[in-house]
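Q: Protein A?
A:
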Amino acid sequence: MTVQDEITYFKDPQVVPMPPPDGNPTPDDKFVYIGRCHRTKRDITICYQTFGNPQDPCILLICGLSSTCFNFPFEFCTRLVDIGLYVVRFDNRDYGLSTHMDGLPTLSEARIIAPAWMSFGEKEPPYRIEEMALDALNLLSALGIPKAHILGTSMGGMIAQRVAIYQPERVLSLTIVFSHCGGPHVEHPSPLNGLLLLFGKPKSESIEDVIDFKMKTLRLNSGDFPLDENQCVQLIRVVNERMLDYQEGANRQLWAIRRSSSRDTALKELCGIPTLIIHGLKDGLVPYKNGIHLGELIKGSKVVLFPGMGHSLPREILPAIVEELQLLKQRAEIAPRA
């Protein structure tokens, strides 16, 4: 099997793209069948949304752990459209309205976050960051997009790195937001942050308890920036009505993060991709030193550290982030690669 064969999924012509049976899509949700994952042997449907003119260069937004495409604020997406980008945001496999891997193995959070040396006797996770990167590439192919700017946050930043490693010729630029490279050099959160963010759960599935829990998480992640509480509550309601939390999928995603291989060596070999690394100095979940380390690995990358920014995209700094992305876009246009 060639590298291209490994990247490209087989497509069964009889498969019809469908949301999970208990999903409640919004009018903006679209569905596309991207093919059959080699590792899980499951057919994958991706739920995605678009903004802007399809004739403009595409930017693919990849969200993080147990998140949906709504984690990229509407205002952020429209600002990207204003600088001449066609925005595609999507739900990763096993969460939101993309294919749920029902029936595949999972582990408890306690076992998953244990160090690798404690995983003796543990089975391989059903998929890894590597397969999630193949989803992103096959999504672009299914949408007829040969090249794109790639932006990922947190786990999405890890997926974005793998996308660039696998098919650098398809990456116009790479933006990694509050993420890390995997492997032994990762600086992990403080024990308190780790426990609160990984083990916290709503008291029940009632919308009131879900809102209470998610607002606590948002406040913990927000750094020094105040939350627009009414807007946050409204968004939580929309996301919850669209699809209830899928804890099994979230655990499998976390397992994929924890057991995926280091990207250090491969990132050192990336050449010529205009790269931007964004991190918050108040990030308690993925400390900012991880962003600095990524900058040291990727030649020619630009690292931007925002004071007061936590593990979120606060409205107050969206203009500054988009300004950096516009500069990155211009850099990619000035020195296009073959």
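Q: Protein B?
A:
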Amino acid sequence: METPDTPENATETGTTTAGEHTGIAAQDWAHASADPQYRAAVVDLLGALAYGELAAFERLAEDAKLAPSLDDKAALAKMAAAEFQHFQRLRDRLEAIDAPPTAAMEPFAAALDEFHRQTAPSDWLEGLVKAYVGDSIASDFYREVAARLDSDTRALVLTVLDDTGHASFAVEKVRAAIEAEPRVGGRLALWARRLMGEALSQAQRVVADRDALSTMLVGGVADGFDLAEVGKMFSRITEAHTKRMAALGLAA
């Protein structure tokens, strides 16, 4: 999943040192998975991430068809390959914990497919903005969740959220397009705002539809968020979105 990894473009989550982790976050998978509810929540989380990575691979491959040059096409193809490697790591992890990958992904396929249908880009630039802005919002959400997970699962989640190179690529191309034709900026800014709303709604739907995952996030297991922390989390995600918009040269 393409997402910037620079401090100014990420939420503050993930800066906690190992010694500061408590509860399940201080345990490894072998110990944490003894709780069946926690195990079910992690399977859900990895299933959602795995399908997201597979969808990202498919979308980048499609976006490559709209690329204006062979160099751009090759760059996107390379990023798509990186997304598929992320998918493979998640699939392998699900198999390792005796969770059939297809069964883990299936509950999230329809909702994620609908999100991508509703936010299908109309051109090359909208595709770049969607990957940079829209996917990054989802990645920020997963990073927030990762901070509450066992050490093994947390490390895997953070690894597959690593930037594939799309962040700097998108910023360079979008800023150049706006510089060449300033009126493009207004259209892309409106598009990015729409993506923000759709991405947040999608994250909420994914959690609400899965009992184990929602219970984990609101404090049932894994030291979940209380209501005040949920508010702070979305404030951090919104702040990171605003910084990404600025990096693109767009008004938030």
